[in-house]
Predict the 3D structure of the following.
Amino acid sequence: MKFAGPRPVKGLVLALMAVAALTVTGCSMFSDAAKSDTARAKVGDCINVLEGSPADSKTEPVDCSSAKAVYTVKSTSDKKQDCGTEFSSYEETFNGGTTAFLCLAPNLKQGSCYHEDKTTGYSYAECDSAEATVKVVKRVDGQNDEFLCDANSTFLTLSEPKTTFCLANPKS
């Protein structure tokens, strides 16, 4: 998280690395049918993080208009790849190999609250809950400019698609 003010703009590194360990018995070949719903998501689909964990996150695909649509799928692969500093990733493995790898862009909604974790990224939270750590007070699509945010707020910017999220403490 960054604070608006005079300084060089740098990207926020999101570290959502969700590795879902799958146990499939009696199969010699891994198929798409054995993948989770999240692993079968397509570019443009949205993902809700039910439970964040560096080793075994629980996620689900959701409608992109939902406040719980925390991430949008930017790319999919059956091999691990570099998502860059602006995006998070989701990885599903089987027998030590990657079977699904997604790069995810934050899709935070104005007026909604989230739990932000440096290791697992964002997950939706009710604003009046103890889990809520940030509230999106402003979302600007089409621009990635930290100075669109109040000097007392923090910000998250994306270059593709250009988006600015202005964040504040939900308890204020």
